[in-house]
Amino acid sequence: MAITLNENEFVTIQKLIFQEVGIDLQSSKRLLVQSRLLKRLLYYKFDNYLDYIRLIQVKNTEKIEMINLITTNETYFFREIDHFEFLQKQIIPNHPFKKKFRFWSAAASVGAEAYSIAMLLDRSMAKGDWEVVGTDINTEVIKKARIGLYPEKWADKIPIELKKEYCLKGRGRHEGQFLMDRSLVENMDFTVGNLMKYNSEVGKFDVIWLRNVLIYFDDATKQLVVDNVMRNLHVGGYFFISLTENLNMLNTASLESVATSVYRKIK
Ligand SMILES: C[S@@+](CC[C@H](N)C(=O)[O-])C[C@H]1O[C@@H](n2cnc3c(N)ncnc32)[C@H](O)[C@@H]1O
């Protein structure tokens, strides 16, 4: 017999996800949540969702597992190419010589965005002159980002000269995959971080990308997240959201718009 996540149970999960992650799960997502969490019920041999909800309320490691299953982690290399061009043409050449360039992929997923940037920076700057930090609330995607191993198909979006230089073709049990060059990883750091809080430990950045995540938040949460992230941006630094997102309805007095979905911190 199918196990159903009923309306009350869904609302409990909805509230929990909203409080912890900020994601505003619409009612239409009930069946999706039901199917994503089913494997955890089967793992625990539960025959109803209420038992699972009781468990996540007392067991933090399982709550983390649940968050990992609920977040949507779609990403790819060189996503929204206009932003890479802006970075290459407008930001990198104007960065003060010998000042370390710090970049933050603030909803990094499995790291495709962070490695795309790392390849470009490594081409333009000496090793040690740049650093890329990736954070995400999902502990599983951060583990994957640290490894930097991707299906071969994902390399299709990587410019050919970068692919040749930084993507190592897998052999044997890694046939059909590629590994990001280890020399990049030395200048990178992937850690778990929640955008609902100020992430003081990652420090200040010249450029922050917060792309394809605001879409999951309501306006009040967007404001909270943007305010948190702004504390990590140097005055004069650049802030990018996705081309499909906007900051309408938010107070963005410290930012000026410089290109589509690109902002500069002015105070
Ligand atoms: C759709 S992916 C976007 C990945 C990448 N920025 C891109 O544009 O390709 C959204 C990511 O945001 C993460 N996320 C959602 N809520 C978060 C939060 N409160 N704190 C940190 N990361 C969060 C998810 O785990 C997911 O990996």
Description:
- With 267 residues, the protein is α/β, with parallel strands linked by helices.
- It has two domains: 7-70, Orthogonal Bundle (Chemotaxis Receptor Methyltransferase Cher, domain 1), CATH 1.10.155; 81-265, Vaccinia Virus protein VP39 (Rossmann fold, 3-Layer(aba) Sandwich).
- The chain has ten helices and ten strands.
- The protein has helices at residues 7-21, 30-44, 49-58, 60-70, 81-91, 112-124, 139-147, 160-166, 182-185, 219-230; strands spanning 101-105, 130-136, 149-151, 167-169, 177-180, 188-192, 205-209, 233-240, 255-259, 262-265.
- The strands form two sheets. The protein has a seven-stranded mixed beta sheet, covered by helices on one side. A three-stranded antiparallel beta sheet has the order 3-5-4.
- The longest helix has 15 residues, at 7-21.
- It is globular and about 60 Å long.
- The mean pLDDT is 97.
- Residues 21-23, 71-75, 79, 107, 109, 113, 136-138, 141, 193-196, 211-213, 216 line the site of S-adenosylmethionine (SAM).
- S-adenosylmethionine binds next to loops.
